[in-house]
Design a protein that fits this description.
This protein has about 100 residues and is mostly helical. The chain is built from 3 helices and 2 strands; from the N terminus they run ββααα. A two-stranded antiparallel ribbon has the order 1-2. A hairpin with a 2-residue loop joins strand 1 (about 5) and strand 2. The chain is rod-shaped and about 65 Å long.
């Protein structure tokens, strides 16, 4: 995982006890460390969602637009409804921390 802590990018670090202790020896506080890892986890989740949307739900939304443009209102509504179900499934698979 890559983290950004107080303006410094640290690449390839996991949130293990030894890593946290090492970061503390560099002068970072526990709250700064926790915040950096939380931010990195959220960014990672957002990237996973973005990839899933482009593969899974975006094609369904495009299909809805295509059907709507062709005058197939019912088909467009069905495709849009399916796309929204897929979006909900993606959000469930990649939840954001509260």
């Amino acid at each position: 995982m890559n983290i950004n802590i107080k303006g410094t990018k640290i690449v390839g670090i996991d949130k293990t006890t030894s890593s946290v202790e090492y970061l503390k020896t560099l002068g970072y506080s526990a709250s700064d460390i926790d915040s950096a890892f939380a931010d990195a986890a959220e960014l990672e989740t957002l990237e996973l969602r973005k990839a899933a949307y482009s593969i899974e739900s975006d094609p369904l939304f495009l299909e809805a637009l295509r059907k709507d443009a062709a005058g197939d209102v019912e088909g467009a509504e069905a495709a849009r409804a399916e796309a929204l179900k897929v979006v909900d499934a993606i959000k469930a698979r990649f939840p954001l921390a509260v």
